[in-house]
Write a structure and sequence with these properties.
By secondary structure, the protein is α/β, with parallel strands linked by helices. The protein is built from 14 helices and 18 strands. Helix 6 crosses helix 7, helix 7 packs parallel to helix 8 and helix 8 runs parallel beside helix 9. Bound molecules: 2-keto-3-deoxygluconate and magnesium ion. The site of magnesium ion has 5 residues, from loops.
């Protein structure tokens, strides 16, 4: 192979040798070492996975990073396999169960590896397994891009837009604080801002327990060291407060700024319908995650009552979680997390399914998934035709030191550059400076003490 693992020599070589052929089928009873190891295009040396490193690090918060090395000197890929509050479960799945299956396999057979890890394991889906698979998938796309000398978005069909419209977060305990935070987002050139407010008499509502500079914390849900803290939630208080917040924001800020809101799966169907209906006059860009993820058909109730655009999906782990909502056009934005739904390979299928039903994408982009997942999301955003909006974060210095190369933000848009692969990396020495710290998400209860969806 060329002495420049990421250089243009690769691209020319691939052009000359044509598309990679799939290999000969396995003979019955053999060990599955992958579909195509034996049938590479003439002259292209076979590529093999030689090592899978699982790096757990806490530069401000916990991240699980997958680094896949190959037999080609210098050629490796980096993926993110972080599952907030369950990091070590994913790291163990990767180290103990998945890594041994990857050694010797052809890293370029991304779809085959995905199928093998998803369907081949018999135990399918679930957040731990799908986050682990996402880490592997992102690393393999990174390798493929580096080998081709192209950014991943080129492998996905090339650019369809100059950048991905991004949204940031604004929050506060008073309406005026939220208003100020939205203004700060707008000053920073955001065209879209998610607004969350504290509930009177109830301390620590979802998305509000941050400092006044809330846009710095976009998507950042504080991890609770030790044991999780409990927030108190009451649907009646929430339902009375949120429409008044948006009435306030529209009266102060006008119609132009796009406003979003996240219910974070806290309501029942008729409550969700009431909220969506009462928010109609304030023209939200979307109302996110009204209902728990289990019974998708409940969204029919909301659709009957309201034209507020709906988004859903950050807790979904499989393509089939998305099918009822998309095929019945019960939502307007599908917002799976690439890091929890198996990576680019599965998310692009979700996007294509959505395209057929007039549903757009709004991939989940909080700080509790790492820069490689954010980069993967943006590569997909700028390549697909039915992109909607991208949630984004600003990274603290320590995260940038350990996980460099995150997408950049300018004039309301988030973007990736032309570095081959995903453009992100891991600094293993820096990662060692920040050892894992056990941490949890908060949890929630009603005033009567019963468990509430957080
Ligand atoms: O780990 C949980 C967070 O990722 C989640 O609470 C953030 O809902 C979220 C969002 O929309 O960013
Ligand atoms: Mg959310």
């Amino acid at each position: 192979m060329s002495s420049h693992p990421q250089g243009p020599g690769r691209r020319n070589f691939l052009k000359m040798s044509g598309a990679a052929a799939l290999g000969s089928p396995l003979v019955a009873g053999g060990t599955d070492t992958g579909g195509g190891a034996s049938a590479r295009p003439r002259g292209l040396p076979p590529l093999k996975i030689t090592e899978v490193r699982v790096i757990v690090t806490c530069p401000g918060r916990n991240y699980v990073v997958v680094k896949i090395l190959t037999n080609e000197p210098g050629l490796y890929g980096v993926g993110d396999a972080t599952l907030n509050g369950r990091e070590l479960a994913v790291a163990t799945a990767l180290k103990e169960h998945i890594a041994p299956l990857l050694i010797g396999r052809d890293p370029e057979q991304v779809e085959d590896v995905y199928q093998y890890l998803y369907r081949g394991s018999y135990w399918r889906s679930g957040p731990v397994q799908m986050t682990a698979i996402a880490g592997v998938d992102e690393a393999l796309w990174d390798i493929k891009g580096k080998r081709a000398g192209m950014p991943v978005y080129q492998l996905l069909g090339g650019r369809t837009r100059v950048g991905a419209l991004a949204y940031t977060h604004a929050s506060g305990n008073e309406f005026s604080e939220v208003e100020d935070a939205v203004r700060r987002g707008m000053e920073r050139s955001f065209k879209c801002v998610r607004a969350q407010v504290g509930l009177p008499g109830l301390a620590g509502t979802y998305g509000t327990s941050v400092t006044k500079k809330s846009e710095e914390h976009a998507g950042r849900v504080d991890q609770q060291a030790g044991l999780p803290e409990t927030e108190i939630f009451e649907p009646s208080v929430y339902l009375r407060t949120v429409p008044k917040l948006f009435a306030h924001l529209r009266s102060k800020l006008g119609e132009e700024v796009e406003l979003l809101h996240d219910t974070h799966e806290k309501l029942g169907p008729i409550e969700g319908a009431r909220l969506a209906r009462e928010l109609e006059p304030f023209h939200l860009f979307f109302l996110e995650d009204l209902l728990r993820p289990e019974h998708k058909e409940s969204f029919r109730v909301i659709r009957q009552y309201s034209t507020t655009p709906l988004a859903m999906g950050e807790l979904f782990n499989s393509l089939w979680d998305c099918v009822p909502l998309i095929s019945e056009q019960l939502i307007d934005y599908i917002r799976c997390d690439l890091g929890h739904i198996g990576g680019i390979t599965n998310a692009r299928k979700v996007a294509s399914l959505a395209e057929a039903f007039h549903v757009k994408t709004a991939w989940h982009g909080p700080a509790d998934v790492g820069p490689p997942t954010h980069a993967a999301s943006v590569h997909l955003d700028i390549a697909i035709p039915n992109f909607g909006v991208q949630e984004m974060v600003f990274w603290p210095e320590a995260t940038q030191e350990v996980l460099p190369g995150a997408p950049t933000f300018k004039d309301g848009y988030i973007n990736v550059g032309d570095t081959p692969g995903l453009g992100t990396d891991v600094n293993e020495d820096a990662a060692k400076k920040y050892p894992y710290k056990r941490a949890y998400l908060p949890t929630a209860r009603r005033i009567d003490g019963s468990v509430q969806d957080w």
